[in-house]
Amino acid sequence: MFKEHSAFHVLKSVNNIDYSVSPATDATATTAGSPIGWSHSNALVFGRGNRVYYKSMADTEGVAQQLCKITDSMGSLSLVQCAGENQPSTVALATSNGHMQLWDLTTKRPTIQWKLKGPSAMIFNGTTLTVGDEKGALRHYDTRVTDPAKLKDQATKVTRHQGRITTLAWHRDKFTVASGDQNGLILVWDVRKPRVPLEVGELVQRRRKMQHAGAITALAWCPWYGKYLVSGDSAADKTGTIRIWDIANDHGPESSSRPPERPNKLELDAQITSLHFSPHINELLSTHGPGKPTEVPSLIRVDPLQSRMANSIVVHQFPLMRHVTTMSVARKNIAGSVLSPNGHRIVLAVPEEAQLKVWDVWGKFKAPKQKSLFESCAIR
């Protein structure tokens, strides 16, 4: 039923890496609570207290090396983001006091530093670093600019969110970026017309809107076709919802007349902390933190049953959203995760266990062997 490189066959634990976040970092938050990145030079970048380390993932048993130390005046490490394949050794760091730095993993030196109040999410798009802040502002920095003053002056700034930006995702077209905030609102922007977000989503009071009940904690664009944006939230009652938005066709979640076997919403009993598409197979992975316990009717006192999805990896077929596999991977909350650049492995941040957990998730795609003309014509 499932292909050889599906997570159904591949998903397994590889090893663990020692990890810790500063006490000042909210370990229950996603992304900001799991400052980790995976570079295109195959290095994992992460924090241990007030120090930043990097580790070659070509040898998962190898020793991590220190990149830098975050001083007390800078606050605590809050965000880590690695650049794309055109800058395989570049990593961006942000601290709780708003210190922003770009580092070169090859030279182990910072290339530029500047200050920004309240950075809360960031992501690269080529040489552009997009940063969201606690007040809902979005800035696009051209990292080719080497003068900090010019970098800040030339940055494009937009303000439409009314709360802290929690997560960002660039589409592969390089022009479209989605931003989600703590109030459950998602906005989609075309950087060629950056001042006003696109009018997409469900029709609410004559305007289109992309809205969740809980804070947006994960965004991912489908890499294979169309402009499908998948969003995940973390509600206060420890539930989570995954929604599918077709940005290109009908400006919202797909029509209610869509066959029921292809849902546009999946309600789950655990908070969603990250979403990742496989680049090789039509599968979507979600990671989950705390789950909503279920009360058990009984004449005697019985503890509530824990959510089946709490602290787990769940893999879905996309766009059918059929269940592929669920694997409990931690005793404590998964704060976030990062997928390897080749899409084969995932690293899960579990701060309460002081561990980064490395898992194989998708195998290598093997193209069917082409038969020769002689073989195809042979008598059987």
TrEMBL record:
Stretches that traverse the bilayer: none
Q: Which keywords belong to this entry?
A: Cell cycle, Cell division, Mitosis, Repeat, WD repeat
Q: Which GO terms describe its molecular function?
A: anaphase-promoting complex binding; ubiquitin ligase activator activity
Cellular component aspect of the GO annotation: anaphase-promoting complex
Pfam families tied to this protein: WD40
PROSITE patterns, alphabetically? WD_REPEATS_1 (PS00678), WD_REPEATS_2 (PS50082), WD_REPEATS_REGION (PS50294)
WD repeat residue numbers: 158-199
Q: Which SUPFAM superfamilies match?
A: WD40 repeat-like
**Keyword Signal carried by entry:** no
> Which biological processes are named by the entry's GO terms?
anaphase-promoting complex-dependent catabolic process; cell division; positive regulation of anaphase-promoting complex-dependent catabolic process
State whether keyword Repeat applies. yes
Query: What is the name attached to this protein's record?
Result: WD40 repeat-like protein
Organism encoding this protein: Dichomitus squalens
Q: What is the lineage of its organism?
A: Eukaryota, Fungi, Dikarya, Basidiomycota, Agaricomycotina
